[in-house]
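Bench log, entry 3. Co-assembly request; chain sequences pasted below exactly as received.
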Amino acid sequence: MAKTLQERRAERQLMIVLLPSLLLLVAFVIYPAIYSVYLSFTNEALTGAAARAPRLIGSRNYMRLFGDAKFWNALFVTFVFVLGSAIIGQFVLGLVSALALRRRLVFRSLFSSIILLPNAAPEVVAGFMWISMLAGGDHATLSRIVSFFGLPTADWLQVFPLTMIIVVNTWRGIATAMILLTAGLSTIPQEIYEAARMDGATPAQMFRRITVPLMMPTILLYMLISTVSTIAVFGLVYALTRGGPGGATELISIYIYNQSFTAYQLGYGAAVAVITLLVSLVLGIAYVRAAKVEI
Amino acid sequence: MKKTVFGGLCAILLGCTSTFVQAETLRLANHGQAGIDAMKSTVERIEKKLGVTIEVVEYPAPDKDYLSKLLTELGAGNAPDLFSMPSTAAVADMVEAGYLAPITSEINAWEGYKNFYDVAKKLAVSPDGETYVMPYMLGIQEIYYRKDVLEKAGISTEQPKTWDDLLARAEEIKTKTGAYGLLFPAGVSWGSGAFDEGFQHLIVGSKTPQIVTEDGKLDLNGEGVRDVFDVYKTLIDKDLMPVQPLLGPEPWVIPKYEQFPAGKLVATTCGSWCYIFDWGRESKNPIPDVTKVVGTWTVPGQTGGQFVLANLAAPWAVNAKSANVELAKKALLEIGSVETQVSYAARIGNIPSSKDAAGDPEFQKLTELVPIHAAAENGTFLKQAAGFGTVAEGVARATDALLRKEVDAAGAQKILVDYVKETLGDDMVK
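Structure output for the full assembly:
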């Protein structure tokens, strides 16, 4: 059926309203992404002969990447980091915080402020703050705590580097998880819990049978956001360890940076970035599909 | 009314005139407060002499971050007109990239260049035979040791004659004083310092003293490279050098600024800047009577010989894509003046490349540096080649693995070779 004049005018107005956003998206997201794909097929570099005359080298960067043990190490480290800090650490502590804040606590405002506090510090500042806590030597905070209990001290970022960055990132991300999950919890009507209580359901049963299923869309949305954003974490870990020692905390984001701005191999760095984009895309699609599950 | 119109016309005319006579602007990159302070009087002099406006752009202080930002801007074509380079190792690669404007004819015609030390002139010549940098300051490096600590412990202060002799001395220091005996900068966190202030000292006195072949390839599989890593391995395994601080984010702070002044580290490689910046008059933790308390040894060769390492300290260059290359070259020659050299020497402690500095009354006041300046011509150096920046990063990675006791000397050499091959291609490594 032909559109009326009014409908066509409304469509035109809509396009005009959306155009600036569309242009910005093309300029700052779509074009750079396409250019990165192009770069990944070149030997473009920041210095040396390849910087003067870069050339197309086909799929050589990708062939090199698949045989590069450091790339696979970076992928593995990123997987453990995302699993440990986003999927387990932040989610569990965020959910516990959200459930706790639903109750009538004495210091509820203080408790929520403390949880939100890590987000107030810029990530590099937070990184340096944690270095002072986890550094080697007798004066570092954690070493002082463990020595108080008669336990041996250590340079925690050297001895347990991956565990430490998981702890720090968990600390930093609890607030986001808590806010999202609190929003999810608030959508569950209290009447359902009251009815369950009248039927004799225990708190554990109510959590398993009511809270978790009804929160599933929120949980999956949180998982999608936190997984993708944790894959992209850079500043906090770079400030803490710079990817060391010996690649133990070299996340894929740090690996991309090191290839592009330490080894100055932009083409190879772009190839790693393209693969990371694909991994994020696959995970995103999987979460979106899972979110359509009927409860 | 007429007065108002006349006044308005005058204002417009004045505005137009001032636009026409407005000075051209040169952008100059600088990093680190000491470097910015050292350039202050030079900037004023250039503005006055050339009638230009100089805009000083402050860059991040750590050398590695500075170089990354500079290279990114050079690649993008929006870098400043003039800039310094944190490491000599970066120059050849930047020449290959076409970032630097050649200054051979200008610098050779410049009167001030005639009295530069030959070692500085040689270091400034790139593999293609052209000169691209102003080699106005030299980093003269050797081993600095705590004379007072050694004398008190009854340990010889004589010049060690071989690597074995040096390691034996470090061991004696550890046994008799409990302090660390010797430090060679190492590890990824130290950036190019692992190469510039560590590895180079030893390789020039090894069985394979150069790592560039006649055809410009990098010879990294040589016996000398492995032997150098073996020295690191010995120092680390016998706990003769501090390891934990070198794995942290600012590895130089604890050993250089805390342990050495406290006598807990007795010997370390360093440059003349240590007498000024690290432990001298510009230091936050100075050692009183630093030249009496801290002595120097040249770095002994593997089986003999003595080596004092010479590098170009933060050489300046002109951006090849500068909108006003000729003007920038004139400004570059001003940066090479004795006055600027002395200003840098006073604040940072590097050595002026001009012999004329010896006659400068301000330089004469820097009594710590005068004898080093007089002997600067004896400096040894590695022949430069494209890919040195990559070698420096490879050395940092290899020594990092040694610090973590993950590999032996052969393993460290493999890390270096593999990294350079991965980055530059198999055909670049012999």
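Chain A has a mean pLDDT of 89. Chain A touches chain B at residues 45-49, 51-52, 64, 68, 131, 135-137, 155, 157-158, 239, 242, 244-246, 261-265 (CB under 8 Å).
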